Every structure is written in structure tokens, then in C-alpha cells.
């Protein structure tokens, strides 16, 4: 089998690891490079302009490291900087954002009539999910709320604690969410809070799993664009995951080792511009 393409993945912090893990399980053995911009976390409260500038330099870094496919594993950057990422990546590098695959999935879900959407301010205020869904599924009611405290809580290791459950209650007890059938966690940090969301809704509301949806999309993209026959041969390759952070933070190191269940090599790589 010819050399497997390197997959570059980035986020502001640990959130993108939820996408990385889903990609690892769909595409075991693929070389992965992860960039976590921990020095600039959270992205969700930054201006679109600043998010675009941060995105540009990470995309450039991943491209220079040889990535042939770059996954923007951050909803905030996907919402406001997807075009910038494509432009910076240039020809020959494909870019996947985390919004479109989830919108396409929801567009197919004719069983759904009313959904809740939560994410950072950057994502919710961009209106990208609401607009894309209005075009594809005008009958689907989307109830959206920015929940800006949740990503920092996860980054600091508070998922699964009473503090996280209280903050979730504060946001979700809102009448806005009373009739929803499905909650869309439109921030890659939120999968760390699945149990807390399920506790809040008493398991009566479906919690969507965007990392799975995005990973399946990446696999299909590789099969079609790179004409890869994703048989079993790559299973034999050794695990090759390199993680770069703009700042080594105890929160990231701790969560990363626990969540990925392995000792990943993590190094500090500060990008100047
Ligand atoms: N995980 C990111 C997202 O999906 C960013 C969270 C943040 O840095 O605010 O939006």
C-alpha cells in the first residue's frame, strides 16, 4: 500500500482530541498531527478576525509538517475561518470543518422536528448552523444558546463534577430547551460532558455525537479524494500521533493521557506568525 496521507487536526485545546480519537478509531494506523492552541484558548470569545489569524498560522504549520488533509476540530474556527483555512492550505491539501458534516447528518434525520444547539459565542453568534439548516431543512426548529463557560470548564478538568453539572443546569434549564428531541453539542470540548448532559435530561433526549459523524466524513473523503482503499493493511502500522501545543498546560497533559489511554508524545511548539 502506498504511503498513508498525514492527517492534521487542530483546536484551541483538548476539545479536538474528541475528533482525533474518533478518527483514530475509524482510521487506525494513520499518521496524525494535532495542534492545540492552548496559549490562546478559549477561541469562542475571540473576534472572528482574531480566530482567522490564529487559524491561518496553525494551518500553515500543519501543511508544512506534510499534512494532506486538515481537520478544523473546532466549531468556533469552522464557523468563522473555514474559508481562510482553505485559502491558507492551498491546492493539494483538503480541509474538513466540523460544521458541514453535522449539518448534512441532521438534514437526513427526518425523525427530528426540534433540536437544541449549544456552542461557544463565536459559533452561535455566527448563525452558521441555523442558516445552513434553514436552507436544507426549513421544517426543523433549531433552538440555539451560547454556553461559553463549558469549554473552559472541560479544559480545566471539571467534566463529570458537581460544578459542571450545576453550570449545565444553569444553561439548559432554560425553557428554550423544553421540547427538544436532540441536543447538538456544537463545540468539540462538549463530548467530555456527555454523561453530565445525559444526567440533566434523564437520558430522554438524544445527545448527538459530532466527532463520530466528522470521523466518518474524513474516512469517506480519503476514500474518494485520495482514492484510498481503506482495507485492513494499515491496521498493522505502528501508532503515530504527534501532539503540539502552543503552551504545555497541566490541564491538557492530564486530560490527554486519560482520554487517549496512552502516552502520546506532546511537545511545545509556539507559532510566531
Ligand atoms: N473546541 C472549540 C469549539 O469547538 C473551542 C472552544 C473554545 O476555545 O472556546 O468551538
Q: Quick summary of this structure?
A:
The chain has 273 residues and is an alpha/beta fold. It has 11 helices and 10 strands.
Record the SSE blueprint.
Elements: E1 6-11, H1 16-26, E2 32-36, H2 48-64, E3 67-72, H3 75-89, E4 94-97, H4 100-108, E5 114-119, H5 121-126, H6 128-136, E6 141-146, H7 150-155, H8 162-172, E7 182-185, H9 194-200, E8 206-207, H10 210-225, E9 241-245, H11 250-260, E10 265-268
Parallel strand pairs: 1-2, 1-3, 2-9, 3-4, 5-6, 5-7, 7-8, 9-10
Helix pairs in contact: 1-10, 2-3, 4-6, 8-9
The protein binds D-glutamic acid.
Protein described:
This protein has 273 residues and is of the alpha/beta class. It folds into two domains: 6-97 and 211-268, Rossmann fold; 100-209, Rossmann fold (3-Layer(aba) Sandwich), CATH 3.40.50.1860. Helix content is 43%, strand content 18%. It has eleven helices and ten strands. Strand 9, helix 11 (250-260) and strand 10 (265-268) form a beta-alpha-beta unit. The mean pLDDT is 94. D-glutamic acid is lined by residues 11-12, 15, 41-44, 74-76, 120, 123, 151, 187-189.
